[in-house]
Amino acid sequence: MAIIEVVKYDGPPGVFAWKYPNQELGTWTQLIVNESQEAILFKGGQALDSFTAGRHTLSTANIPVLSNVVNLPFGGRSPFTAEVWFVNKMNSMNVKWGTSSPLQLQDPKYKIMVGVRAFGQFGVRIDDPRKFLLKLVGTLPLFDQETMVTYFRGLLMSNINELISSYLVHKKISILEINAYVVEISKHIQGRLASSFLDNGIELNNFFIDSINIPDDDPATVRLKEALAKKAEMDIIGFTYQQERSFNTMEEAAGNPGNMGAGMINTGLGLGMGFGMAGPAADMLNRMTRGISLDGASGSGTGTGTPAKACSGCGTPNPAEARFCTGCGQNLQPAPAAEGVACHSCSQPVMPGAKFCPHCGAGLIIKCTGCGRELKPGQKFCAECGTRAANGQQDE
To answer: CA–CA separation, 232 vs 240, rounded Å?
Structure first.
């Protein structure tokens, strides 16, 4: 096999360490090392010497240790077998990393389990080529960015998972807000990992988290985002979730007669007044309750087909035969009628000033058939024109 005359770095870009493929060298071989590179010569698995930028001749003058491991029977020009490693010492700023599967975390604000993904990049520089080759490279023919991420994936993921979880728990922020803290988390991760990288001859620079996000198809995340969007809409309108649910329930009751809708509506009205419901909420309740009876049908009733009467004190509907209010205990019986005031139709006593009889429903306001003047109860002739009053005639 031909002895190599010139050895130089011809590896692809983005490579941290590259081994020259041929091991047949000689003491006259020219070793060319570019700027930002360092070459290390291995013989029998032992690192002999390192070479910085420039042109080097592999001779005993430049490599004194060769005289101990290479026989020189040809006047200093002897062939030998050795490995030459080239190490790239430039800053590499685009080493990509990312979680292979979502991290399962509990959102401390909304108490749901969500899958979290994280992506980013970091920069490295080979600080100690000899240590780097001995600890990480070994017998590999090439060490690139993908290999580095593979080596350090476990270290990266354990620290990322721990720090993201601690920020969520201790700062009590939602996973939807975590991106506001990526700079702080990035600095903490870099500080945590720097010593581990340096132990392997690597300097860690500029660790970045590009984003911490949740997969769009995660069911829990979809429901959470929908709930937050609904909450934002209600905040703009001015309703709370409980108010909206109450409105929906009362609208359903209003559209379904024959159920307990009217009772719930009356309860809603009482609560709304008690909490100072104003503006559109009160208008909505008024529209929904207009014309709704206690048993869900039009008109008034108690659900048993009998007329109902409302308490003048608290407004609670009561059966027609009730003597006292079931809501506040107020007396529901009409005040004793003034002497001589009775219904002209059924002769039952009526309250002074009443326009209709509470017993038979007849109108109590009588007008003169001659001049139309209003007649008092019991008046037989019109004081204006003298026309005789007609019993049973009521206000039209």
So the answer is: 10
Residue 83's DSSP bridge partners are 42
Q: Where do the domains of the chain lie?
A: 6-88, 92-220, 337-396
DSSP class of residue 133 equals: I
Instruction: State pLDDT tens for residues 270-299.
Output: 444 444 444 455 555 554 544 444 444 444
Q: How many whole angstroms separate alpha carbon 62 and alpha carbon 25?
A: 15
In DSSP terms, 321 is beta-bridged to: none
Rounded mean pLDDT, 359-385: 74
Q: Is the dihedral of CA 378, 383, 388, 393 positive or negative?
A: negative
Tokens 């709930």 — which residue? Answer: 227
The token pair at 126 is: 């080979």
Closest alpha carbon to 202 in 246, 272, 170, 155: 155
User: For 157-180, what is each residue's pLDDT tens digit?
Assistant: 888 888 888 888 888 888 878 888
Measure the N-to-C terminal CA separation of the chain; round to a whole number of Å: 129
Whether this model's pTM surpasses 0.85: no
Q: Class assignment of domain 92-220?
A: alpha beta
Closest among 85, 66, 29, 58 to 201, alpha carbons compared: 85
Strands (DSSP E) found in the chain: 6-8, 15-19, 24-26, 30-33, 37-43, 46-51, 54-57, 79-81, 83-88, 92-98, 103-106, 113-126, 142-144, 202-213, 308-310, 317-319, 366-367, 374-375
Report residue 71 as tokens: 């026989």
The residues with which 123 forms a beta bridge, in sequence order, are 205
Distance from C-alpha of 133 to C-alpha of 21, rounded to nearest angstrom: 16
In the DSSP assignment, the letter for residue 339 is: T
